[in-house]
Amino acid sequence: MLRLHDTRTGRLEPVAASGVVRMRSHGVRGLRAALLPDLIRRVLEVRRVRVFTTGPALEDGFLGECAALNIRPADSTTPGPPGSGLPDSGVSDSEGALVVSFGSAGSAAEAGRVESEHRLLVAPMLVEGVAVEGGEAAGLDPLALRMAMLERHYREPAALGWDELQAADTALRRWRARVADWAESPSAPMARERVERVLTAVEEDLDTPGALRELQELERDPEVAAGAKLESFLHLDRVLGLDLPVEIGKR
Hints:
alpha/beta, five-stranded mixed beta sheet, two-stranded antiparallel sheet, 7 helices, 37% helix
């Protein structure tokens, strides 16, 4: 079950693994704040939990940057500039937080009439020094930035420069090449125990650095067949959002 750090209580709190989970973004300031609800949505959806998201209307340019990082837009937008439209959240506009509501929502979530039993407040630290523009001109894959952000816990400060982005780009391209190689091997069921280790790490307050380490161990494990590694990486990419199968069939 997904557990998230509630900023108001200072504790890890479980998020219901059934019904509908509703998220409302508050003060979206930068790509890390935009990545947070996308990652939570992906974690829940891979467990077959329905998610409905609301956020402030964003400028087209920023929406384009989000799209380049496979960050899905909110299902509906709130009026006003980023940072408005979250009554009773308990935080100021500047904190860039996310309200996660769940409980007896039922189908009313889509209509915006959630009578939630539980409400968590999740706040990411901002990323400093990120250069989004010019990355492709320098030969970096746009998703290298997503990879670099996943390599750091969302509640830890992160200063990302070209060295970090280039290292993430190298790791991303290596995984894509490995996935393409594994796709040429006989198929096999995914390594469920290994997959669960990755998902368990992500479900523990979005420990994406730990999840990526587990994925690296799976990559190197000689006991797991290539076909099983392929299916495992494809399944886990539903959470990671790194377009890992993009090189399949291009060789």
